[in-house]
From TrEMBL:
One cellular component (GO) term of this entry: cytoplasm
Keywords associated with the record: Repeat, WD repeat
UniProt keyword Repeat present: yes
MF terms (GO), sorted A to Z: diphthine methylesterase activity
UniProt organism field: Alectoria fallacina
Protein name, entry field: Diphthine methyltransferase
UniProt pathway annotation: Protein modification
PANTHER family given in the database record: DIPHTHINE METHYLTRANSFERASE (PTHR46042:SF1)
Amino acid sequence: MDDGDTSDDVPSIRSDHSIILDLPPSCIEFSPLHSESFVVGTYYLETESGTSHTTSIQQNDDQIKSSVQNRRGSLMLFVLQDQNLTLFDAVDVPFAVLDLHFTRCRKGVFAIATSKGTVCLCTININGTGPIETLNSYQIFSDSSLTLSLAWNRVLSHSDTIAASSSDGRVAIFDTKYQPPMTYTKTEAHSFEAWTLAWTSKGAELYSGGDGSELCRHDLSVRPVGGSLNDGNVPSHRYEFEASVRDTKTHEAGVTAILPLQPVFHGERVLLTGSYDEYVRVLLPVEGGNRPKVLAEKRLGGGVWRLQILDFREGISPAYKILASCMHAGARILEVRRTEGGKWLINVLAKFVEHESMNYASDGCCIYVGGRVEGFTVVSTSFYDKKLCVWKTETYRQGE
């Protein structure tokens, strides 16, 4: 099990483009229908006097010495095509944007987590070129809480369902079909901030990560309620949390990223996690109150804020290409794979270190040559200097 930071041994990628945004970027995602289009969310905090406050996303509210806190942000739609980066639309919003995810079940629709305890549904047109429009806003938590993370349920029958987490440690599940929101379950899942959420592939389990080194598994059941499938005002089902499995010993700091690795391998429900402790870990959750089994881990030299799958290859030795946003250490491209003998390995394939402040937001898409993935185009950002960088890497064959 390799726990050293070996990123000094891999090539450092240089950017093809870089621009400075108006506000600090906090989240980013490519449209699943248009690989050239991506949306950036921003986060900005003002003091009572109207001057900016240099706070990071993960800073606790009680650390900010201001009697009045006014957060605001924006949504920006970019199109990257033929080496040209074009801003197609920008919308100012009266809240900071902390997370952003498209759904694959409704064309052009994405959800954002806001600093006012809401989740908003937004859309871009079917061409992926804007404008950005708001469809609905759901008050999931109190307006004094921050919605920190959200995750769409990808099971088709529940594809309108979103899980959201808050700065006061709560986790909620609601259905975007209904307004006002039908919030099925809300629970105080974490002692402190609940930074991240992830559904498993079957949508029957929800994992959440918290600031107190907490990794929680919430077993879910779907209960029928009044109404019918044809009744647009009354839900036909609701979620219920069963007893949670809570682990506080595997991670040495807050759990900030959770990525289920699918499909299930030989009955193993494998997770990849990231933490403030600078490690990524391949975990095998176990039943009961026992700690997950650590199958592999690697230190990346920076707190691991987000993890995204760029590509996956099946076979006897399945392999993932993973993009990691590593806060003060920039971005990394990882290969996470399972050998024929059942051993899990984590290798750093490339790094991007041009960012001079916190890398909270990165995403990428595949470069295809003759129908084969030969590399990736990545957009990564840094918070305080408001920098957005576009870079490419042809790393795929390094792990083969």
